[in-house]
Amino acid sequence: MTTVFNDPTQFAQEMLSGFCRLHADTVQPVTGGCVRATETPEGKVAVVIGGGSGHYPAFAGWVGPGMADGAVVGNVFASPSAQQVHAVAKAAQRGGGVFLSYGNYAGDVLNFNLAQERLNAEGIPTRTVVVADDITSASAEERHKRRGTTGDLVVFKIAGAAAEAGYDLDGVVEVAQRANDATYSFAVAFAGCTLPGDPDPLFTVPKGRMGVGMGVHGEPGIAEEDVLPAADLARMLVEKVLTERPDGARRAAVLVNGLGGTKYEEMFVLWNDIAPLLEDAGVEIVAPEVGELITSLDMAGVSLTLFWLDEELERLWVAPAQTPAFRRGSAITTTRRDPAAIEDATAVTYPEATTESQASARALLAIGQRVAAALHEHETELGKLDSIAGDGDHGRGMTNGADAALKALTEAVEAGAGAASALAAAGDAWGDRAGGTSGALWGAGLRAAAGALADDSAVTGAQVRTAVRAALEHILSYGKAERGDKTLLDALIPFTEALEQDESELAQAWAAAAQVATTEADATADLTPRIGRARPLAERSIGHPDPGAISLALVMRTAAR
């Protein structure tokens, strides 16, 4: 059980602060995570990794020479926001482009992709390799759907060593992808993990039993079996992972990982049985790792990873590294980076704006104030609606997002920002604080809408219509949903179409479109969810409208007023 904490909602932030305080010689905290505290050469590819907290030493523990230049740190078991990814990448980059890597989970994919798009638009070349090594989460034919587990360490180490050796961005991507394709993992769990402040574990395993093929957040495995003696467990792990041994593969890095509640002594016993089995199968073991490599708070369990090597990958695997949680080879000489230079990389500035655009920004602020008040008024009912087929956090997520957006709008207006910059700041803040897929999509939509506005002129009705369409298209490109899936799109699409088709004055057209959105949101009660978190409990949601569509219609009606 996780017992050492203050405010559970601040666990990730306090953890990161304590980690950076302890390892101040290696890492420095920045907005969204941490970066190297030591100098790196100009033109070097910046390797930026990340994911949710609760998995130490992933991800902050792997920042340092020979590995990552920065780590993005989300809340416990939650994806970091696109804004966090962007901020860490900006602080870490040195002119050679940014390489992003993370485990294959929907929230991480959405937010890292949003950040990558933004970085590329700003002229910072950015590429990604998504780690997908868990053999039980998808078939070999659908490797792209596999979860990222202990393979994170493999891919991050290879990418970091390549970047340290002077590879360009394309070269780092190529070897990292090759490492990902050569990595296979399999895990078992003996007991669930408990989030800070929660009295009960996320999942349970009956006494004397183990979950076979479990994910690092307690995702379902492929079976449940009796706990085995170490020798038999070793045989199961080895046989499972060897089922996908590439033709002709002989040399492999081998990783035995403890998920947090399994002690080192137990893993040493397991290794004593695993190593001979691999050797009997003709595997030449290279630089093995046994210990806590990627954990899940206090989950009891172990995993086995095989990383099949060629000559280049082996050279990069054994190359020196010097991080708080992973050290290899001889010491690397470093020079401390000027902390002020890192802080400047994340400073907020706004382009010069005309008085007309500043007036439009003040109008946006007034709308933001009304929207935040309306969402607080309806927070409880939105939460209850979401609890029917979800986890009941939609109301809180919407108020968190609106409050953060309002704060950002206020600061932008006080700094003299124009409409485009003010709305972009609001979108960033919403996506950063709201959490979940809905928050990410709202943030992305607002930022896309900001791109249709300007800082050198007042906002026009035509620009507003263009901005709404831009938001819709951006959400469609990332959300993987369509009309009829029982999501916010069932309100946003008809709203956009009605606004574009109504040629009357903007305020009148917006009000009419908001009523269309309200009617369509109410009509989602008859739909069955086909995507997202509500899909597994689809039957429960029939007869109840989608909370995302309802909240979107509420925002549009409030803006109309």
From TrEMBL:
Residues covered by the DhaK domain: 7-326
A Gene Ontology biological process term: phosphate-containing compound metabolic process
Gene3D superfamilies the record matches: 1.25.40.340, Dihydroxyacetone kinase, domain 1 (3.40.50.10440), Dihydroxyacetone kinase, domain 2 (3.30.1180.20)
InterPro entries on file: DhaK_dom, DhaL_dom, DhaL_dom_sf, Dihydroxyacetone_Kinase
Alphabetical UniProt keywords: ATP-binding, Kinase, Nucleotide-binding, Transferase
Pfam families: Dak1 (PF02733), Dak2 (PF02734)
Residue ranges constituting the DhaL domain according to the UniProt record: 362-561
GO terms assigned for molecular function: ATP binding; glycerone kinase activity
Record carries keyword Nuclease: no
GO cellular component assignments: cytosol
Highest taxon above the source species: Bacteria
SMART domains: Dak2
Alphabetical list of NCBIfam families matching this protein: PRK14479.1 (NF011049)
Name of this chain's protein: Dihydroxyacetone kinase family protein
Organism: Ruania alkalisoli
